[in-house]
UniProtKB/TrEMBL annotation:
UniProt keyword Hydrolase, yes or no: yes
Membrane-crossing segments per the record: 20-42, 296-322, 362-382, 403-430
The name this protein goes by in its record: Macrolide export ATP-binding/permease protein MacB
Membrane disposition: Multi-pass membrane protein
Residue span(s) of domain ABC3 transporter permease C-terminal: 304-440
Keywords per UniProt: ATP-binding, Cell membrane, Hydrolase, Membrane, Nucleotide-binding, Transmembrane, Transmembrane helix
Length: 447
């Protein structure tokens, strides 16, 4: 042990003789370790964000979505240009009555509409839903109440508005008790939901949802006041879409029933929608398994990319140690003449490379722990100096970036440090062997 400590002390002394050179050599390892930890932390954060969004859909839920076909079937009257597609109320009743593993079902109808209060207006997502939509989507109330079963039975003209709708249409005012106009119908506001971060799109079926721009009304009220057909006006053209239900969320009691129930629902829908291809099925549990598999692949790819930095740092160590062997040839000859063996020379140079790589690894780990702080600083810089507010609110990519939080896993610290030391030792083997093989007589003659 004393001999090892003496060797380490000698290695440190030799490295400190050339402080700047040792520091520059060490930087390759420092940034290599930092990049490994940072990459894996960002990958872990992105994976947890994706899994959290999937879990928000419910691990025991099965979601059926109306999907607009590329070329929809028109109605018999070509002049009306009515595109009819999606889930039918008959589908809802058929599945709910025949699949006995389903314990709850939440149908909704949604589309964009302009909402107006006095001289203020904004485009909102009008959602016709049932009372249990509140719990299924984990909404919270800021004030008032959500839609009730009594509202549904009475087809009442009441609504619940999202956080941004309240701030836009009623700045500095109390919205409850007031009415907003959507289309030609006025709806009395009975509550406002709290702010909720917009969800990102999942797969190719579910689009992202900004709950803060929602207006909720009873589903029966929507069918009674507006109907299934909605007019769509674009530049120079006008068309209509007829959709009975936009989405149904089915819930089963046990997670083991999710996949069998999803297969039954899929087969049932295929029987009645085989030609139109206008419905799709999203199973959060299947998406969660895919997210976990992607996490492993993502970590492997990011880790491999970051390891390149460590390899470059190792090459730098090898280069410097080879130069050091040349500079210290006479020293090696003197040590050999005084009785040092080849193993002693090899041990000395390997100790120096280990100290160099180990110190760089510790500094890299210290920087890696600051990854969340560095990421927050970059995000703040992007929000304040690069992107304006309009881009931030409209860009789904920025919304995902804004909600991403890197997670530094403890195992990544140990792995990154261990690999840095291993690469340092590996890089020092050849220079150490080259130093040990020097002929003592020739080394003593070296100037």
């Amino acid at each position: 042990m004393l001999r090892l400590l003496r060797t380490i002390r000698l290695g440190l002394k030799n490295l400190l003789l050339h402080k700047l050179r040792s520091l520059l050599t060490m930087l390759g390892i420092v940034f290599g370790v930092f990049s490994v930890i940072a990459m894996l932390a960002i990958g872990e954060g992105a994976s947890r964000q994706a899994q959290r969004q999937v879990l928000e859909l419910g691990a025991t839920n099965i979601i059926v979505i109306s999907q607009k076909p590329a070329e929809g079937s028109k109605s018999n009257n070509a002049q009306t240009q009515v595109l009819q597609y999606g889930i039918l109320r008959d589908d809802f009743r058929r599945i709910k009555q025949t699949v006995n593993t389903i314990v709850d079902a939440t149908p909704i109808r949604e589309f964009s509409q302009p909402a107006r209060y006095m001289h203020r207006n904004m485009d909102v997502r009008l959602v016709g839903c049932t009372p249990n939509y509140f719990s299924v989507n984990h909404l919270k109330m800021d004030a008032g109440r959500f839609i009730s079963h009594r509202d549904q039975e009475d087809t009442a003209n009441v609504c619940v508005i999202g956080h941004e709708v309240a701030e836009t249409l009623f700045p500095g005012e109390e919205p409850r008790g007031k009415s907003i106009r959507i289309g030609n119908v006025f709806y009395s506001i009975v509550g406002m939901t709290s702010h909720r971060t917009a969800s990102a799109a999942i797969g190719g079926s579910m689009s992202g949802q900004d709950f803060d721009k929602d207006v909720y009304i009873p589903l029966d009220t929507l069918q009674s006041r507006i109907g299934d057909e909605v007019m769509i006006i674009t530049a120079g053209s006008r068309s209509s879409e007829k959709v009975e239900l936009s989405q149904i969320t089915f819930r089963v009691a046990d997670a083991k029933d999710v996949v069998p129930t999803a297969n039954v629902i899929r087969e049932t829908l295929a029987r009645y929608h085989a030609d139109s291809n206008d419905v799709d099925l999203v199973v959060p549990m299947e998406l969660l398994k895919q997210a976990e598999q992607l996490k492993v692949i993502f970590n492997v790819v990011l880790g491999a990319i970051a390891l390149i930095s460590l390899v470059v740092g190792g090459i730098g160590i090898m280069n410097i140690m080879l130069a050091t062997v040349t500079e210290r040839t006479r020293e090696i000859g003197i040590r050999r003449a005084l009785g040092a063996k080849r193993g002693d020379i090899t041990e000395q140079f390997l100790t120096e490379t280990s100290v160099l790589a180990g110190t760089g690894g510790l500094l890299g780990v210290s920087l890696g722990l600051l990854t969340p702080v560095a990421f927050s600083a970059i995000r703040w810089l992007a929000k304040t100096a690069i992107m304006d507010s309009s881009v931030q609110s409209s860009s789904k990519m920025f919304q995902m970036f804004d909600g991403l939080e890197p997670v530094v896993a403890w195992w990544t610290l140990a792995v990154a440090f261990g690999i840095s030391v291993f690469i340092g030792i590996l890089s020092g083997i050849y220079p150490a062997l080259a130093a040990a093989k020097l002929d003592p007589i020739e080394a003593l003659r070296h100037e």
